[in-house]
Amino acid sequence: MNKFQAIALVIAIVNLLLVFLFPPFDYIALARSNVPTFEGFAFAFGEHPGHVVNANFLQIEAFVILVNAAIAWLLLRDRSRAASERKIDWQRVVLFGIGLNLLLALLFPPMENYYAVTRAALPSFDGFYFVFGEHGKRTIVTAILYIEVFIILANGALLYLLFRNTKPVQLSAEDRADIVAHLKQAGGGRGPR
């Protein structure tokens, strides 16, 4: 682990602490048929009558922080000579894109009006709203948010694999002989029976 990876790890731990100290809360009101509506973020150890922690959104937040920490870990690793000779490292571009998409997915989660929750059997979708904005009569549609995060990660993983820089290894006759000699030595000189 280099010093930049250690810094990324510390930042991830601090972010997780902040997320769990200020979790997302839903407000449950009798006037709204006991449908939880997203209220915002508040101190975890404070008094919050009529509020419950939105556990699904909290899980997604923690998951995205951990994924972004893994992305930072990969971005900040020591580069090989072959990778540093390339003009554009497309794997790094993909990792930046994944991190940015995950951040945007959390900043603008899918929401629906609480009237739709009381009348629909399946979750509906009202639009993407800024998570720190006014949304007193809306609730986060965590099922759609889970799907959104999964699709971002699946597409990012496929693109990351697509842009890997691997070339077939060509062994010379001397290299093959060295490998065979090394294997014989490691096996105690025994050949096939």
Question: In words, what does this structure look like?
Answer:
By secondary structure, this protein is mainly alpha-helical. The protein has one domain. 54% of the residues lie in helices and 11% in strands. The chain is built from seven helices and six strands. The strands form two sheets. The protein has a three-stranded antiparallel sheet, with helices on one face. The radius of gyration is 25 Å and the shape is elongated.
Write the layout of secondary structure elements.
Elements: H1 3-21, E1 24-27, E2 37-41, E3 51-53, H2 55-75, H3 81-85, H4 90-107, E4 110-113, H5 114-119, E5 127-128, E6 138-140, H6 142-162, H7 173-186
Antiparallel strand pairs: 1-2, 1-3, 4-5, 4-6
Main sheet attributes: strand count, strand direction, barrel closure: 3 strands, antiparallel
Please compute the radius of gyration using only Cα atoms.
Answer: 25 Å
Structural class, judged by helices and strands? Answer: mainly alpha
What gap, in angstroms, lies between the N and C termini? Answer: 45 Å
The number of helical elements comes to: 7
Low-pLDDT sequence parts = none
Strand content: 5-15%
User: How would you describe the shape?
Assistant: elongated
Helix and strand succession? HEEEHHHEHEEHH
Name the average pLDDT.
82
Total number of strands: 6
Give the strand line-up of the largest sheet: 2-1-3
The share of residues in helices is 40-55%
What is the number of domains?
1
